[in-house]
Write a structure and sequence with these properties.
The protein is α/β, with parallel strands linked by helices and 271 residues long. It has 3 domains: 49 residues; 81 residues; 109 residues, Diaminopimelate Epimerase, Chain A, domain 1 (Roll), CATH 3.10.310.70. Helices cover 30% and strands 22% of the residues. β7, α3 and β8 form a beta-alpha-beta unit. α1 packs across α6 and α2 runs parallel beside α3.
Length: 271
Amino acid sequence: MPASHAPAVNDLVLASVRIPGGTALYDVHVVDGVVSRLAPAGIPVNPAARRVDLDGRYLIPGLWDEHVHMTQWALAANRIDLSGAASAGEAADVVRSALSGRGREAGDTVTAVGVGFRDAVWSDVPSLELLDGATRGVPTALLSHDLHCVWLNSAAASRYGVAVDASGLLREEPAFALTRELGNLPDAVVDAWVRESAEAAAARGIVGIVDFEMTWNRDVWLRRVAADSMPSGWTPASIRRTLTGPLRRGCGPVWTWPTGRGCCGWVRSRY
Protein backbone atom coordinates (compact mmCIF):
# COMPACT_ATOMS: atom_id res chain seq x y z
CA MET A 1 0.00 0.00 0.00
CA PRO A 2 1.25 3.53 -0.60
CA ALA A 3 3.01 5.18 2.34
CA SER A 4 0.92 8.32 2.06
CA HIS A 5 -1.87 9.91 0.07
CA ALA A 6 -3.36 13.34 -0.39
CA PRO A 7 -6.05 14.04 2.22
CA ALA A 8 -9.60 13.94 0.90
CA VAL A 9 -12.78 15.28 2.43
CA ASN A 10 -14.49 11.88 2.09
CA ASP A 11 -11.75 9.99 3.95
CA LEU A 12 -12.69 7.39 6.54
CA VAL A 13 -10.21 6.27 9.19
CA LEU A 14 -10.76 3.01 11.05
CA ALA A 15 -8.58 3.80 14.04
CA SER A 16 -6.79 1.52 16.49
CA VAL A 17 -7.38 -1.83 14.81
CA ARG A 18 -5.41 -5.03 15.01
CA ILE A 19 -4.56 -7.27 12.05
CA PRO A 20 -4.83 -11.06 12.53
CA GLY A 21 -1.46 -12.51 13.43
CA GLY A 22 -0.27 -9.50 15.40
CA THR A 23 -1.07 -7.24 18.32
CA ALA A 24 0.17 -3.86 17.00
CA LEU A 25 -2.43 -1.14 16.52
CA TYR A 26 -2.99 0.42 13.11
CA ASP A 27 -5.13 3.10 11.50
CA VAL A 28 -6.73 1.98 8.24
CA HIS A 29 -7.47 4.80 5.80
CA VAL A 30 -10.33 4.35 3.33
CA VAL A 31 -11.07 6.65 0.37
CA ASP A 32 -14.19 6.16 -1.77
CA GLY A 33 -14.64 2.70 -0.27
CA VAL A 34 -11.09 1.56 -1.05
CA VAL A 35 -8.37 0.92 1.55
CA SER A 36 -5.68 3.45 0.67
CA ARG A 37 -3.27 3.34 3.58
CA LEU A 38 -2.28 1.22 6.57
CA ALA A 39 -0.36 3.26 9.14
CA PRO A 40 0.67 2.90 12.78
CA ALA A 41 -2.09 4.13 15.06
CA GLY A 42 -1.99 7.72 16.17
CA ILE A 43 -0.37 9.38 13.17
CA PRO A 44 -2.18 12.69 12.52
CA VAL A 45 -4.75 12.52 9.72
CA ASN A 46 -6.81 14.90 7.67
CA PRO A 47 -9.06 16.64 10.25
CA ALA A 48 -11.95 16.49 7.78
CA ALA A 49 -11.83 12.68 7.71
CA ARG A 50 -14.43 10.69 9.57
CA ARG A 51 -12.70 8.77 12.35
CA VAL A 52 -14.12 5.59 13.90
CA ASP A 53 -12.24 4.32 16.95
CA LEU A 54 -12.37 0.51 16.98
CA ASP A 55 -10.51 0.24 20.27
CA GLY A 56 -8.20 -2.65 19.39
CA ARG A 57 -10.72 -4.82 17.58
CA TYR A 58 -9.47 -7.08 14.79
CA LEU A 59 -10.08 -6.06 11.19
CA ILE A 60 -10.41 -8.83 8.61
CA PRO A 61 -11.51 -8.98 4.97
CA GLY A 62 -15.26 -9.21 4.44
CA LEU A 63 -16.78 -12.70 4.52
CA TRP A 64 -18.35 -14.57 1.60
CA ASP A 65 -21.15 -17.09 1.99
CA GLU A 66 -20.28 -19.56 -0.76
CA HIS A 67 -23.58 -21.49 -0.82
CA VAL A 68 -26.87 -19.62 -0.51
CA HIS A 69 -30.38 -20.19 -1.87
CA MET A 70 -31.14 -16.51 -1.71
CA THR A 71 -34.85 -16.45 -2.47
CA GLN A 72 -35.57 -19.37 -0.12
CA TRP A 73 -33.48 -17.69 2.55
CA ALA A 74 -35.48 -14.49 2.19
CA LEU A 75 -38.79 -16.35 2.31
CA ALA A 76 -37.72 -18.27 5.42
CA ALA A 77 -36.64 -15.06 7.14
CA ASN A 78 -40.17 -13.70 6.75
CA ARG A 79 -41.95 -16.76 8.10
CA ILE A 80 -42.97 -17.26 11.71
CA ASP A 81 -40.99 -19.95 13.53
CA LEU A 82 -43.38 -22.29 15.36
CA SER A 83 -40.90 -25.07 16.08
CA GLY A 84 -40.83 -24.25 19.79
CA ALA A 85 -44.59 -24.18 20.29
CA ALA A 86 -45.63 -26.92 22.74
CA SER A 87 -49.37 -26.58 22.11
CA ALA A 88 -51.89 -25.12 19.70
CA GLY A 89 -52.54 -22.33 22.17
CA GLU A 90 -48.84 -21.51 22.38
CA ALA A 91 -48.54 -21.54 18.59
CA ALA A 92 -51.46 -19.11 18.36
CA ASP A 93 -49.75 -16.83 20.89
CA VAL A 94 -46.52 -16.87 18.85
CA VAL A 95 -48.45 -15.93 15.74
CA ARG A 96 -50.33 -13.17 17.55
CA SER A 97 -47.09 -11.66 18.82
CA ALA A 98 -45.36 -11.92 15.45
CA LEU A 99 -48.20 -10.25 13.56
CA SER A 100 -48.38 -7.45 16.11
CA GLY A 101 -44.63 -6.89 15.97
CA ARG A 102 -44.61 -6.74 12.19
CA GLY A 103 -47.53 -4.35 11.96
CA ARG A 104 -49.72 -6.75 9.98
CA GLU A 105 -53.35 -5.75 9.51
CA ALA A 106 -56.56 -7.37 8.34
CA GLY A 107 -56.73 -7.61 4.56
CA ASP A 108 -52.95 -7.58 4.03
CA THR A 109 -52.15 -8.53 0.44
CA VAL A 110 -49.39 -10.91 1.54
CA THR A 111 -50.42 -13.96 3.53
CA ALA A 112 -48.63 -14.43 6.85
CA VAL A 113 -46.92 -17.83 6.89
CA GLY A 114 -45.69 -19.79 9.88
CA VAL A 115 -43.62 -22.97 9.79
CA GLY A 116 -42.55 -25.89 11.92
CA PHE A 117 -45.46 -26.79 14.20
CA ARG A 118 -45.91 -30.39 15.44
CA ASP A 119 -49.58 -30.91 16.29
CA ALA A 120 -49.12 -34.66 16.83
CA VAL A 121 -47.35 -33.99 20.14
CA TRP A 122 -49.67 -31.26 21.38
CA SER A 123 -52.01 -31.89 24.30
CA ASP A 124 -54.65 -29.63 22.73
CA VAL A 125 -55.84 -29.41 19.14
CA PRO A 126 -55.76 -26.65 16.49
CA SER A 127 -59.01 -24.96 15.66
CA LEU A 128 -60.25 -22.37 13.20
CA GLU A 129 -61.65 -20.32 16.06
CA LEU A 130 -58.32 -20.27 17.92
CA LEU A 131 -56.33 -19.09 14.91
CA ASP A 132 -58.96 -16.54 13.90
CA GLY A 133 -58.79 -15.05 17.38
CA ALA A 134 -55.00 -14.73 17.19
CA THR A 135 -54.83 -13.28 13.69
CA ARG A 136 -57.72 -10.79 13.65
CA GLY A 137 -58.38 -10.97 9.92
CA VAL A 138 -54.77 -11.17 8.68
CA PRO A 139 -54.71 -14.03 6.15
CA THR A 140 -52.56 -16.68 7.84
CA ALA A 141 -51.35 -20.15 6.91
CA LEU A 142 -49.21 -22.28 9.22
CA LEU A 143 -47.19 -25.19 7.79
CA SER A 144 -46.35 -28.26 9.82
CA HIS A 145 -42.72 -29.33 10.16
CA ASP A 146 -43.17 -32.13 7.59
CA LEU A 147 -45.33 -30.02 5.23
CA HIS A 148 -48.15 -32.59 5.32
CA CYS A 149 -50.51 -30.26 7.19
CA VAL A 150 -51.55 -26.60 6.89
CA TRP A 151 -53.48 -24.75 9.59
CA LEU A 152 -55.50 -21.90 8.10
CA ASN A 153 -57.54 -19.04 9.45
CA SER A 154 -60.82 -18.01 7.82
CA ALA A 155 -59.24 -15.11 5.91
CA ALA A 156 -56.66 -17.38 4.27
CA ALA A 157 -59.25 -20.07 3.49
CA SER A 158 -61.35 -17.44 1.75
CA ARG A 159 -58.36 -15.97 -0.12
CA TYR A 160 -57.34 -19.34 -1.58
CA GLY A 161 -60.84 -20.70 -2.07
CA VAL A 162 -60.44 -23.78 0.11
CA ALA A 163 -62.95 -25.33 2.46
CA VAL A 164 -61.87 -26.11 6.01
CA ASP A 165 -63.76 -27.61 8.91
CA ALA A 166 -63.76 -26.43 12.54
CA SER A 167 -60.12 -27.56 12.91
CA GLY A 168 -58.89 -25.20 10.19
CA LEU A 169 -56.60 -27.98 8.96
CA LEU A 170 -55.75 -29.23 5.50
CA ARG A 171 -53.81 -32.47 5.13
CA GLU A 172 -51.90 -34.31 2.40
CA GLU A 173 -52.75 -33.30 -1.21
CA PRO A 174 -54.84 -30.21 -0.33
CA ALA A 175 -52.04 -29.10 2.00
CA PHE A 176 -49.39 -29.71 -0.66
CA ALA A 177 -51.34 -27.71 -3.24
CA LEU A 178 -51.79 -24.76 -0.90
CA THR A 179 -48.13 -24.85 0.14
CA ARG A 180 -47.13 -24.48 -3.50
CA GLU A 181 -49.55 -21.58 -3.88
CA LEU A 182 -48.08 -19.79 -0.86
CA GLY A 183 -44.76 -19.57 -2.71
CA ASN A 184 -46.29 -17.60 -5.60
CA LEU A 185 -45.54 -14.08 -4.43
CA PRO A 186 -45.25 -10.82 -6.41
CA ASP A 187 -41.71 -10.05 -7.58
CA ALA A 188 -41.73 -6.77 -5.69
CA VAL A 189 -42.43 -8.54 -2.40
CA VAL A 190 -39.73 -11.17 -2.86
CA ASP A 191 -37.17 -8.60 -4.04
CA ALA A 192 -37.83 -6.44 -0.98
CA TRP A 193 -37.35 -9.45 1.29
CA VAL A 194 -34.14 -10.38 -0.50
CA ARG A 195 -32.83 -6.87 0.08
CA GLU A 196 -33.72 -7.06 3.79
CA SER A 197 -31.98 -10.43 4.11
CA ALA A 198 -28.91 -9.11 2.33
CA GLU A 199 -28.78 -6.09 4.62
CA ALA A 200 -28.97 -8.41 7.63
CA ALA A 201 -26.08 -10.43 6.22
CA ALA A 202 -24.05 -7.28 5.54
CA ALA A 203 -24.53 -6.26 9.18
CA ARG A 204 -22.71 -9.49 10.13
CA GLY A 205 -19.78 -8.83 7.80
CA ILE A 206 -21.00 -10.76 4.75
CA VAL A 207 -19.82 -8.85 1.69
CA GLY A 208 -20.76 -11.36 -1.00
CA ILE A 209 -22.64 -14.56 -1.72
CA VAL A 210 -22.80 -17.35 -4.28
CA ASP A 211 -26.47 -17.97 -5.11
CA PHE A 212 -27.46 -21.59 -5.75
CA GLU A 213 -31.20 -20.92 -6.07
CA MET A 214 -32.73 -23.89 -7.88
CA THR A 215 -34.06 -21.98 -10.86
CA TRP A 216 -32.73 -20.05 -13.82
CA ASN A 217 -32.48 -16.76 -11.95
CA ARG A 218 -30.23 -14.65 -14.17
CA ASP A 219 -33.17 -12.47 -15.23
CA VAL A 220 -34.30 -12.23 -11.61
CA TRP A 221 -30.98 -10.68 -10.61
CA LEU A 222 -30.92 -8.38 -13.63
CA ARG A 223 -34.34 -7.13 -12.52
CA ARG A 224 -33.12 -6.54 -8.98
CA VAL A 225 -30.05 -4.67 -10.18
CA ALA A 226 -32.10 -2.53 -12.57
CA ALA A 227 -34.52 -1.66 -9.76
CA ASP A 228 -31.64 -0.85 -7.38
CA SER A 229 -32.97 -3.59 -5.10
CA MET A 230 -29.55 -4.28 -3.62
CA PRO A 231 -28.09 -3.77 -0.17
CA SER A 232 -26.16 -0.59 0.49
CA GLY A 233 -22.44 -0.98 -0.18
CA TRP A 234 -22.89 -3.74 -2.76
CA THR A 235 -21.57 -2.80 -6.18
CA PRO A 236 -24.26 -2.90 -8.91
CA ALA A 237 -21.70 -2.41 -11.69
CA SER A 238 -19.74 -5.48 -10.61
CA ILE A 239 -22.88 -7.56 -10.24
CA ARG A 240 -24.06 -6.42 -13.66
CA ARG A 241 -20.78 -7.59 -15.21
CA THR A 242 -21.23 -10.98 -13.54
CA LEU A 243 -24.76 -11.35 -14.88
CA THR A 244 -24.20 -10.04 -18.40
CA GLY A 245 -20.79 -11.59 -19.06
CA PRO A 246 -20.21 -14.81 -21.00
CA LEU A 247 -21.49 -18.01 -19.41
CA ARG A 248 -19.44 -21.19 -19.53
CA ARG A 249 -21.13 -24.29 -20.87
CA GLY A 250 -21.99 -26.81 -18.21
CA CYS A 251 -22.38 -24.26 -15.44
CA GLY A 252 -25.52 -24.28 -13.35
CA PRO A 253 -27.53 -21.19 -12.34
CA VAL A 254 -24.90 -19.94 -9.90
CA TRP A 255 -24.34 -16.20 -9.51
CA THR A 256 -21.64 -14.50 -7.48
CA TRP A 257 -22.31 -11.18 -5.79
CA PRO A 258 -19.18 -9.09 -5.27
CA THR A 259 -19.65 -6.16 -2.94
CA GLY A 260 -17.75 -2.95 -2.24
CA ARG A 261 -14.42 -2.66 -4.03
CA GLY A 262 -12.49 -2.80 -0.77
CA CYS A 263 -14.26 -6.08 0.16
CA CYS A 264 -14.35 -4.88 3.75
CA GLY A 265 -17.30 -5.84 5.93
CA TRP A 266 -18.37 -3.59 8.79
CA VAL A 267 -20.20 -5.46 11.53
CA ARG A 268 -22.65 -3.22 13.40
CA SER A 269 -22.94 -5.31 16.53
CA ARG A 270 -21.17 -8.10 18.38
CA TYR A 271 -22.01 -11.70 17.40
